[in-house]
Design a protein that fits this description.
Chain A is of the alpha/beta class and 611 residues long. Helix content of chain A is 32%, strand content 24%. In chain A, helix 5 links the parallel strand 5 and strand 6. Chain A is globular. In chain A, 54% of the residues are buried. In chain B, helix 1 crosses helix 2 and helix 1 packs across helix 4. With 86 residues, chain B is mainly alpha-helical. In chain B, 59% of the residues lie in helices and 0% in strands. The chains are: A alpha/beta (611), B mainly alpha (86). Chains A and B meet through helix 5, helix 9 and helix 17 of A and helix 2 and helix 3 of B.
C-alpha cells in the first residue's frame, strides 16, 4: 500500500527503491529518490523556519529541473499548498507575462514563491513588477532547513496542489487537488498502463508546471520507476535529437500533445530512421489537446520501420480536474478512428457512421474507457444520461477528481486555516451545477459512502437521484459529478470527444478564451465602436483556431492590413497565441441581439464565410 | 574576431523567413515577430534553434525571453559572440 499523501508516497518509493533516479539531461542532474526525499524534508523544515502557515499557498517557479519536484513535494510536506506557476515562453512580453502571473498569485493569495535554479535573470526582472511576492530560492531554504522544528501532520484530505490550467486570463481558476486526489490520480495512471514493468523508464519533455508534465512525472516517481525529464525547449528546438536521446536511454513511456507527434514527423524523414531503435517505446500518450487521426496514422507508418508498434500510440482523455487521467484505451489495443457525419454531429448531436475519409465525414479517435476509480457519464442539459452515439456533456466523478476551483477573491484568511477545516472551504467554489461538498475536501464523516451510493444508483436508474443521507447537507448526490465542459459520446466502451461547451480553444495543451482576445483588441484605434467578437472554431482538419471579427470604418487596403496585423500582434504578445485570424468587416455587419449582445454562433458562420 | 552586425541581421532575417514561411522582403529589423500569422512560441523557438546552429552559440532562455524582433535577436547573438571571443 502506498502512502496516502504526496510526501508519504515519495517516502515509500524512496525506501523501496532508494537508487531509482530522476534524471534531468537539460540541467545535467541525476537525483536518487532517497536524496529527493531528503531534499523535500530539508525544504519543508526551511519553509517552516521561514514561517509558512498550514494550508498556505506557495508558488513554485522553476524550470524542468530537480528543484521543481523538491519544491512541490517539500511544500506539501510542510503542510503548504504547491501552486506551479507557468514559465515564460520565448518572445513573451514581460508586462503581459507578469500580469498573468499576478492574476494567479492574487487568485491564490500567494506571497511566498519557491524559485528553482536557473531563473535568476527573469526573477530579477519580475521582482520590481510583482513587489508583493517573496521569492525564495529552493537551495537557500533547503540549506536553512537544519533547525529541525517538527513538521506538521498532513492528511489525505488536505490540499496538496492548486493547478492553474483553467479559466481565462482575466479570471484564472486554480484546480484544487488534495493529497488523496494526487495519490489516486497517479495510481490510476500506473494501473492503466501497468507502469513499473521490468525495464520501464518514464520520460517527458512537457513543462512540469503543466498537468500532463507534473502528474505524468509523479506517477513514475511515486512507484520508484526511473524517470527522465527534459526541458521543453530541448524537444522543441530539436525534436529529432530528443527522439534519439529518448531511444538511446531506453525510455519506454512518454506523453505529448498531438503537436509533438507532428513535430517528430516533420523532423525525422522516412530516410532518417537508420540506427533509430524505438522497439522499447511501449506507451506514447497522446492527449491534452484534440487527437488528430491523420497524425496517429502517419506516425505509425513513419516510425513502424524503426520498431514503433501501432499499439504504442495511446490516445487519452484527461484534465487537471481529474488529477490527469479520465479515459485510457485498453492496454495493447491499437488506436481506433470512427468516422461520423460531420453535419449531423454538429447540428443534431448524433454520431452517424460515415465512410472513412469521405467528404463530409469527420474522423474521431477513440479515447478508451474510464481509468480505475473514475466514473464517467454523458448527460443532456437536464442532467439525464444519454444513449450511445448521442452527444452530451461529459461528467466525471471519483477519488482523483477535484472538489472544485480556487477563484479570484478567495478569502485570504484561509491561508492560515487547516485545509480540512470548514473555514477553508469558503475559498472553494464547487463546479456547476450546484455548490456542495465533495468527499475529497469534506471534514464530515460518512460522505465517502455517499459516493458509493452514486455508483449503485448508476446501476439501477441513472435518472433517479439518491436522497441525501442523514446529516448530509441538503444537496443531491449529483453534486459529486464534475461537469467537464467537454462534449462527447460513447460507442460501447469507447469515448469520443466531439467538441466543447465552453467558448474555448486548446492549442498545444493550453486553454485560450475568446473573451480575453476581445478584451485586448476592443479599444484599438480603428475599431468601430468597440465592436468585435472572438470565436473559437475548428477547421476541417480538426485544428482549433481563434477568429477575431472586428468592425472598422477603414477602407484603404494598407490601413486594413495594418489594423489586422496590429490586432494579431497584440493578441499574440499578450496571450502567447499565434493561431489567430482577424477578419475585418464593415460597420454594423456583426449580428447582434435586440439588447445589443453579439450573436456568437452567427458571428462564427460569418467568420467561416469570409475568405 | 570581428563581428559583422549587418551580416547577422541579414542572416537572421533569412532564418525567420524560412521558419515562419514569409518572404525576406516582408521583414525589416524592427518587425514584431509575434505579429506574423502562425508565429507561435514553438516556431519562434525553432528560429532560436537555427540561430544557435548557425553561429554555434547557446542562447539562454533568460536572454531570449522578451526578444520580439530581428534586431533584438541580433543583439543577443552579437553579445553571445562577444562573450565567446573574449
Amino acid at each position: 500500500m502506498r502512502g496516502l499523501t504526496l510526501p508519504g508516497a515519495l517516502d515509500e518509493a524512496a525506501a523501496a527503491h532508494p537508487d531509482a533516479a530522476v534524471t534531468f539531461p537539460s540541467s545535467a542532474e541525476r537525483v536518487r529518490l532517497a536524496d529527493l526525499a531528503t531534499a523535500t524534508i530539508d525544504l519543508a523544515h526551511g519553509l517552516i523556519a521561514d514561517g509558512v502557515g498550514f494550508g498556505e499557498r506557495v508558488g513554485v517557479y522553476s524550470r524542468n529541473n530537480a528543484d521543481f519536484l523538491v519544491a512541490v513535494i517539500g511544500a506539501s510536506r510542510a503542510g503548504a499548498v504547491a501552486c506551479p506557476m507557468p514559465m515564460p515562453t520565448s518572445a513573451a512580453d514581460l508586462a503581459g507575462y507578469a500580469s498573468r502571473l499576478h492574476a494567479i498569485t492574487s487568485a491564490a493569495s500567494i506571497r511566498r514563491v519557491l524559485v528553482g535554479a536557473g531563473v535568476d535573470g527573469i526573477v530579477r526582472r519580475l521582482g520590481p513588477i510583482l513587489p508583493d511576492l517573496d521569492f525564495l530560492g529552493v537551495t537557500t531554504l533547503t540549506k536553512a532547513g537544519s533547525a529541525r522544528a517538527g513538521l506538521p501532520t498532513v492528511t489525505p484530505a488536505d490540499v496538496a496542489i492548486v493547478q492553474f490550467t483553467s479559466g481565462s486570463t482575466a479570471v484564472p481558476k486554480g484546480v484544487v487537488l488534495t493529497h488523496r486526489n494526487v495519490v489516486h490520480g497517479t495510481a490510476a495512471i500506473v494501473d492503466g498502463i501497468e507502469l513499473g514493468r521490468p525495464g520501464d523508464h518514464g520520460a517527458t519533455w512537457l513543462p512540469l508546471y503543466h498537468d500532463m508534465g507534473l502528474f505524468g512525472t509523479l506517477a513514475a516517481v511515486l512507484i520508484g520507476t526511473p524517470m527522465t525529464v527534459w526541458s521543453p525547449s530541448t524537444f522543441i528546438k530539436n525534436p529529432a535529437g530528443w527522439l534519439r536521446a529518448f531511444a538511446a536511454m531506453g525510455c519506454t513511456v512518454a506523453p505529448s500533445p498531438n503537436f509533438g507527434y507532428d513535430a517528430l514527423l516533420t523532423a525525422v524523414g522516412p530516410d532518417e530512421l537508420a540506427d533509430l531503435d524505438l522497439r522499447r517505446w511501449r506507451i506514447a500518450f497522446n492527449g491534452a489537446e484534440p487527437v488528430n487521426p491523420v497524425t496517429v496514422d502517419r506516425f505509425a507508418a513513419r516510425f513502424g520501420p524503426a520498431g514503433f508498434a501501432p499499439e504504442t500510440m495511446f490516445p487519452v482523455y484527461g484534465m487537471a480536474e481529474a488529477t490527469l487521467a479520465v479515459t485510457f484505451p485498453q492496454l495493447g489495443r491499437r488506436p481506433t478512428t470512427t468516422w461520423v457525419d460531420r453535419e449531423r454531429l454538429a447540428r443534431d448531436g448524433l454520431a452517424l457512421p460515415a465512410g472513412a475519409g469521405a467528404p463530409g465525414a469527420r474522423g474521431l479517435v477513440g479515447l478508451g474507457r474510464p481509468v480505475r476509480g473514475m466514473r464517467l457519464r454523458i448527460v443532456d442539459e437536464q442532467g439525464r444520461e444519454l444513449p450511445d452515439g448521442t452527444v452530451g456533456e461529459i461528467e466525471i466523478a471519483g477519488d482523483a477528481v477535484t472538489a472544485g476551483y480556487l477563484t479570484a477573491g478567495a478569502d485570504p484568511r484561509t491561508l492560515t486555516a487547516p485545509a480540512s477545516a470548514p473555514a477553508s472551504l469558503a475559498a472553494v467554489a464547487v463546479a456547476e451545477p450546484a455548490p456542495g461538498l465533495a468527499p475529497g475536501l469534506s471534514p464530515a464523516p460518512g460522505l465517502g459512502s455517499a459516493s458509493d451510493l452514486v455508483v449503485a444508483s448508476d446501476l439501477t436508474s441513472a435518472t433517479v437521484p439518491v436522497q441525501p443521507t442523514a446529516g448530509r447537507p441538503a444537496a443531491s448526490t449529483s453534486d459529486d459529478w464534475l461537469a467537464t465542459g467537454d462534449l462527447g459520446f460513447r460507442v460501447g466502451d469507447e469515448l469520443y470527444i466531439s467538441g466543447r461547451r465552453k467558448e474555448m480553444i486548446i492549442i498545444r495543451g493550453v486553454n485560450y478564451y475568446p473573451e480575453d482576445a476581445e478584451a485586448l483588441v476592443r479599444d484599438a484605434p480603428g475599431i468601430h465602436r468597440r465592436r468585435c467578437v472572438a470565436v473559437a472554431d475548428t477547421d476541417d482538419a480538426g485544428v482549433e483556431t481563434l477568429t477575431v471579427i472586428a468592425e472598422t470604418t477603414l477602407e484603404q487596403a494598407a490601413d486594413r492590413i495594418g489594423l489586422a496585423t496590429g490586432l494579431r500582434t497584440a493578441i499574440g504578445a499578450a496571450l502567447g497565441l499565434a493561431e489567430v485570424s482577424v477578419r475585418l468587416v464593415a460597420p454594423d455587419v456583426l449580428p447582434r441581439t435586440s439588447s445589443g449582445k453579439f450573436r456568437r454562433v452567427e458571428a462564427r458562420d460569418l467568420a467561416r464565410s469570409q475568405p | 574576431m570581428s563581428i559583422d552586425a549587418d551580416g547577422i541581421v541579414r542572416q537572421i532575417t533569412e532564418i525567420v523567413a524560412a521558419e515562419l514561411g514569409v518572404t525576406v522582403d516582408s521583414l525589416v529589423p524592427d518587425t514584431d515577430l509575434r505579429g506574423i500569422e502562425g508565429a507561435d512560441s514553438v516556431r519562434l523557438l525553432r528560429v532560436v534553434a537555427k540561430v544557435e546552429q548557425t553561429w554555434d552559440v547557446e542562447l539562454e532562455d533568460d536572454e531570449v525571453f522578451g526578444v520580439s524582433s530581428i534586431a533584438d535577436l541580433a543583439k543577443v547573438v552579437t553579445a553571445a559572440l562577444q562573450v565567446q571571443a573574449a
